[in-house]
Design goal:
OB fold (Dihydrolipoamide Acetyltransferase, E2P); flat; binds 2-acetamido-2-deoxy-beta-D-glucopyranose; single chain; 16% strand; 40% helix
Length: 113
Amino acid sequence: MAPSGDAKLLFCIFFISCCCLTVTLAEVPVDCCLSVAKQQVLKHAIMDYRRQVAGQGCSLNATILVTRRQMQLCVPANEQWVEKIVEHVEKLREHCRKNKYKNPRCSKMMPRN
Ligand SMILES: *[C@@H]1O[C@H](CO)[C@@H](O)[C@H](O)[C@H]1NC(C)=O
C-alpha cells in the first residue's frame, strides 16, 4: 500500500516540477528592442553588444549596446556610427583576450561562462 502511494507521490512531484519548469521557461519574456535610438552613443561607454534580428521573436532589426553599467541601448542595426562602436568593442575584446584581462578596463569584458 505505502510503496505504491509513495511512487504516485514521487511521480506527481516529478510531473509538477516538469510542468513548472516548462512554464517558467516559456514565460521568460523575450528581450526585444521595440524602437531604436536615433541619437549617437559614446563608444567608450560600451562594453558589449548583441544583434537583434527581426523574425526571431522580435519585430525589428537592431543592435543592442551594453554599457559598463549593464544598461542596454537599442540602436539601429546597420548605421555607420553603430558599426564603428561594434568595431571598437571587438578591438577591445581582442586586446583584453591577448592581455589575459589584466587591464582594469577588461574586468567587464570577461567571457561569460
Ligand atoms: C533585417 O535584416 C535582414 C538581414 O540581416 C533582412 O533580410 C530583413 O529584411 C531585415 N528586416 C527588417 C524588418 O528590416
